[in-house]
Each structure stands twice: as structure tokens, then as C-alpha cells.
Amino acid sequence: MAETEVKKYSMDEVRQHVDAKNPWIVIHDSIYDVAEFLADHPGGEEVLLEQAGKDSTEEFEDVGHSSDAREVMQKYKIGELIDEDRKQNKKPEKKSQPTISSNGSPDDFSIWKSWLLPLTIGVLAIFVYRYFITS
After folding, report:
1. 37-93: per-residue pLDDT in tens?
2. Whole-angstrom distance between the N-terminal and C-terminal Cα of the chain?
3. Is the Cα torsion angle 95, 82, 61, 17 positive or negative in sign?
4. Contact by Cβ (8 Å): 33, 71
5. Helix intervals (H) in 1-135
């Protein structure tokens, strides 16, 4: 059985769908036509209309949608972004994540930053506190 071809759209096409009659939203490079969901959205239709014609991935994740919400949204999916407009091809956002060395373990500096440095500062604070209390 042949798999159905997913329709591809550009961000320029998505940006044309901003009105309440035909709002499209991009989340994780997938495009959703949310016109039929406006009245049912728990946060109100204004939230969706405010994001219409945009990539709303960050806003969607910031709210912390449930797995049920993620299932419901699949029935509104109409396609995906073309490769040129996908997020993974754009400049990645700067997020503080430990770097992994070639052997698969976090490098020494990230271990130092993540827990060893705060632990060292805490131990030093205890010694300084005890020094001044016992003096």
C-alpha cells in the first residue's frame, strides 16, 4: 500500500492565511488549518488568531500542551513546510546544554559548570561561615 504524499507549503504561503476564515499555524514544521478548531480551543480563538500565519512552535511548547492536545491537533494537519523553510535548516537557538565529547560523555567543563562549581562554592561558603562563627 503506497503512503500518501504529504503536501508541502512555503512560509510565504502560510503567511497568507491569517484571517479567521482560513487561519494556518506552523508547529514543529507541520502546518495546521485551525479554522474548525477556533471555537473549541480551550485558550480561546484569539490565541490561535494571534498566531495565524506564523511559526508558533515556541509559543505552543511554552504553554505545555498535553499529549491529548497533540493528538487532537493531528486531524487539523494539512501539510508540512518545504525543506528550505524548516527550523532545522535555520540558525539554532542558543540554549545552554552540556557538550558531549567524542567518547559520548559530557566534557569536563560542562560537568564543572553543571554541578561541581555550585558544590565547590557551597563548601567554601560553609568554611567561611564556620571561620567567622568560631572566631
Report:
1. 998 888 888 888 999 999 999 988 888 888 888 898 999 999 999 988 887 545 445
2. 82
3. positive
4. no
5. 11-15, 45-51, 57-63, 67-73, 108-111, 117-134
Q: What percent of the chain has pLDDT over 90?
A: 33
What is the C-alpha to C-alpha distance for residues 112 and 110, in angstroms, rounded to an integer?
5
Torsion over CA: 6, 10, 16, 20 (sign):
positive
Task: Report the alpha-carbon distance of residue 116 to residue 53 in Å, rounded.
Answer: 45
- Which of 76, 86, 79 is closest to 31 using CA atoms? 79
Residue 97 exposed, middle or buried by CB count within 10 Å (0-12, 13-18, 19+):
exposed
Q: Which pTM does this prediction carry?
A: 0.61
